[in-house]
TrEMBL record:
Protein origin, superkingdom: Bacteria
Name this polypeptide is given: DUF2382 domain-containing protein
Organism of provenance: Methylobacterium soli
Domain Hemerythrin-like: 16-121
One Pfam family of this chain: DUF2382
Region feature Disordered, mapped onto this chain: 148-167, 174-194, 242-265
Bias-annotated ranges (Basic and acidic residues): 174-192
Domain DUF2382, chain residue ranges per copy: 268-376
Ranges of biased composition (kind: Low complexity): 243-258
Length: 395
């Protein structure tokens, strides 16, 4: 079980370690100094508060130790003052290190005074029951503070882990969106290549059709015609009409624009344009989400207690003398007032999720296409006889 001597001797160990680490930092380690100074402030506040709440009230009840309380309170007050000045000093300035050394000197002098003066008086003036009660209260309070720190650290780690997971999730979504965009661009590129290839094929087909038609015209033009009608010339050629009859209309062949084929079979290609619709991704807008920090005034009510010393005179319960009387006696009772201590914590209020949603729509693309059609005209026998009769009449 821890004794009060062990408690007083071991209490400054952590603070001295933090002083050593803080003194070894450079002016460039601003963040490190802020973190170590926060831990040092918390440790010094805990040490002073535990003494003032649990040790000093017991020491005031004993004549041998009550005079030491005033000096200890003065040391704590001086330590708090220097600590406040150190907090307001820029962490990267040249004045920071000397102020750390000054605070360290005052604290170590206070520790030496406690070990030299306060500790012997406590060991001699307090009974074992009182000393053990003080140790138990201080250790219980230290355990509560450590537990609160552990819970706060776990909460801070959980918040950092949540922020890290959220950042990783956002990066994954951005990567997925970039992959989709690349796939869309690749699909658009392939579609454009297909459109270009189809256009080349269509142009080549059109060229072949034009070339075939030109060859047909050339072949027809070089073929001897026996009549002035292309239709009759084709029919006479198919039926094997004697050349004497075919020569009767040879005079009109030069003025006809119709093509007469002497082949058994002619293929007339009928071409048609096809509408090829591709897709291309364009930028239709950019949404920017920027997180920034604002300061909002807030307030919170806290209940504080003040302790004031009340002196009153009353009639004794009995006139029988008890304790020391007719001697000088001085009693000091310290008045205390609670002041609010403000600290700030960070928690996630809400989340803003930025993502892209894909929707589907159908658009109708309208255009005109060209295609070949064929017109077939067939002149019957009756018309042929009528033409022949007219020709005979003219003769």
């Amino acid at each position: 079980m821890t004794t009060i001597r062990q408690l007083i001797l071991a209490s400054p160990a952590k603070a001295n370690e933090l002083f050593t680490v803080l003194a070894d930092t450079s002016n460039n380690a601003v963040k490190t100094r802020e973190r170590i100074l926060g831990d040092l402030k918390s440790e010094l506040e805990i040490l002073a508060k535990l003494e003032e709440e649990h040790l000093f009230p017991v020491l005031r009840r004993h004549k041998e130790t009550k005079d030491l309380v005033t000096a200890a309170l003065s040391d704590n007050k001086q330590t708090r003052k220097l600590l406040s000045e150190l907090e307001q000093t820029p962490k990267g300035s040249e004045e920071f290190a000397p102020k750390v050394a000054e605070l360290r000197k005052v604290f170590q002098q206070s520790v030496r005074d406690e070990r030299k003066e306060l500790l012997p008086a406590v060991v001699q003036g307090l009974s074992d029951e009182e000393a053990q009660a003080v140790v138990a209260k201080i250790e219980d309070r230290k355990a509560e503070v450590e537990e609160a720190k552990r819970v706060e650290a776990e909460q801070r780690r959980a918040e950092q882990r949540q922020e890290r997971e959220q950042a990783e999730r956002l990066l994954a979504e951005q990567k997925e969106a970039a992959d989709r965009e690349r796939e869309t661009e690749e699909a658009a590129r392939k579609t454009a290549e297909q459109v270009a290839r189809a256009a080349e094929i269509a142009a080549e087909s059109s060229h072949k059709i034009t070339q075939s038609a030109a060859e047909t015209v050339q072949r027809v033009a070089t073929t001897s015609s026996s009549t002035g009608s292309l239709f009759f010339d084709a029919m006479f050629g198919m039926w094997g009409v004697p050349s004497s009859r075919s020569s009767t209309r040879s005079g009109d062949a030069s003025s006809s624009r119709r093509q007469v084929s002497t082949q058994e079979e002619e293929v007339i290609p009928l071409a048609e344009e096809t509408l090829i619709v591709g897709k291309h991704t364009v930028n239709s807008g950019t949404t920017t989400v920027r997180r920034y920090v604002v300061e909002v005034p807030t307030e919170q009510q806290v209940t504080l207690f003040d302790e004031k010393v009340v002196v009153e005179r009353r009639r004794p319960i009995t006139d029988k003398a008890s304790g020391e009387t007719l001697t000088e006696l001085t009693i000091e009772m310290v008045e205390t007032s609670e002041v609010p201590l403000v600290a700030k914590g960070v928690k996630v209020r809400e989340e803003v999720v930025v993502r892209r949603e894909r929707t589907k729509r159908v658009e109708t693309v309208r255009d005109t296409i060209r295609r070949d059609e064929v017109e077939i005209s067939n002149v019957g026998e009756r018309s042929s006889n009528k033409r022949a009769a007219l020709a005979y009449g003219r003769k």
